[in-house]
Automatic annotation (TrEMBL):
PANTHER family: BLL4328 PROTEIN, OXIDOREDUCTASE CATD-RELATED. The lineage of its organism: Bacteria, Pseudomonadati, Bacteroidota, Cytophagia, Cytophagales. The keyword rRNA processing does not apply. Keywords: Cell membrane, Membrane, Transmembrane, Transmembrane helix. This is Putative oxidoreductase. It is found in: Cell membrane.
Amino acid sequence: MATFFLSPWSARLLSVLRIVVGLLFTFHGSQKLFGWPPSDHAGSATGLMLVAGILEFGGGLLILIGLFTRPVAFILSGLMAVAYFMAHAPQHALPIVNQGELAVLYCFVFLYLAAAGPGPWSVDAARTRTLNRTV
């Protein structure tokens, strides 16, 4: 059976997915915390939104560079599940109607990263390679 032409790239594409998701998620936190990029509600985080902004910004940076990827992704997956059920689900049952598609998508991408790991282009992978050389 022939392999799909992208199969040899799967580990590197996992890293690319992690980097893109981390960068985009960092922007969600920076909007809440620093007002950048500008939006209607940028920089006005208090209470739970402040906690979410800190987790989004800090967690997004850690995901972006691939440091502590599995535990951070697991925590961020939970954050997105809570965000969905607190902010979106009460409005309507369907994510397409309650504008919760992004929260659901982030939740499951982070859950996947928690299970799959960071990929080869990450600080975690570099640390593992260094540890294996010293042992």
